[in-house]
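Deliverable D2.4 — example input (structure tokens):
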């Protein structure tokens, strides 16, 4: 199953496999259930006319977006290189407890084709292509989407305590184009890609796979929910394994493409 959220004249509306679900359906109704029950509920919903309206980010205001760091060896190495305080990234990569941080409220997240931004007070800004998992109230993964954890590396590199400013600002999170309903076991071998374009020129392109992740996505959601409740479910970005070189920084007017599995998320940069 594939879920998408659309901007209709009557307001946001969900679709399954390209056809509109009942107007009364909300994602929170599914994510309040355990994962198996959520999948059954989604499969039994009636569908109507084809969904042709523009796409929105595939979540609602009630779902928070959280993120993971240093889950790939490449990410650990890059953050050690950029940081004045280097050993903390090495320590967290090898630690039992993962790095987890708040990224965005649902209403702040950009959808397909919507603007992402770079901080004006940062000299080095990069997109971070990530597998983003959708989890239920019971912290079970019910599916995934493509995520872009836009980051200000110069701010984070100056001092790890600046992480919230490097990660949380207007236009710093994008998700989409939809949600692939899937079992957690299917997420361990997904290709991930990133392309940054400046006009007709490719500034950077890179690829990795979720096979390179040190921690499984359901391990990360388990840690996230140890002392934190998500009554309407949530989204967790699971870290990046693609880091552009030091001389690549996003500029207004660029476009960013993130690929996760068969999903493609495109966003202009402002």
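Example output (designed residues):
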């Amino acid at each position: 199953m594939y879920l998408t959220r659309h901007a209709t004249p009557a307001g946001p509306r969900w679709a399954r496999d390209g056809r509109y679900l009942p107007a009364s359906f909300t994602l929170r109704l599914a994510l309040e259930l355990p994962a198996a029950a959520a999948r059954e509920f989604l499969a039994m919903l009636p569908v109507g006319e084809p969904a042709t309206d523009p796409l929105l980010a595939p979540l609602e205001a009630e779902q928070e977006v959280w993120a993971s760091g240093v889950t790939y060896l490449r990410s650990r190495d890059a953050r050690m290189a950029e940081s004045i305080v280097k050993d903390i990234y090495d320590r967290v990569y090898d630690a039992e407890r993962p790095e987890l941080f708040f990224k965005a409220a649902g209403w702040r997240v950009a959808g397909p084709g919507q603007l992402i931004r770079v901080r004006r007070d940062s000299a080095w800004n990069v997109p971070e292509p990530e597998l983003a998992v959708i989890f239920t109230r019971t912290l079970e993964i019910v599916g995934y989407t493509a995520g872009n954890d836009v980051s200000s590396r110069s701010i984070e590199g100056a001092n790890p305590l600046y992480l919230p400013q490097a990660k949380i600002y207007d236009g710093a999170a994008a998700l989409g184009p939809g949600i692939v309903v899937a079992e957690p076991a299917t997420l361990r071998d997904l290709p991930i890609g990133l392309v940054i374009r400046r006009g007709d020129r490719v500034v950077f392109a890179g690829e990795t796979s979720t096979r390179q992740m040190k921690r499984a996505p359901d391990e990360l959601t388990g840690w996230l929910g140890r002392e934190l409740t998500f009554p309407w479910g949530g989204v967790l970005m699971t870290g990046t394994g693609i880091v552009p070189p030091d001389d690549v920084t996003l500029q207004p007017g660029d476009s960013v493409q993130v690929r996760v599995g068969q999903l493609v998320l495109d966003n202009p940069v402002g």
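Residues 35-44 form the longest helix (10 residues).
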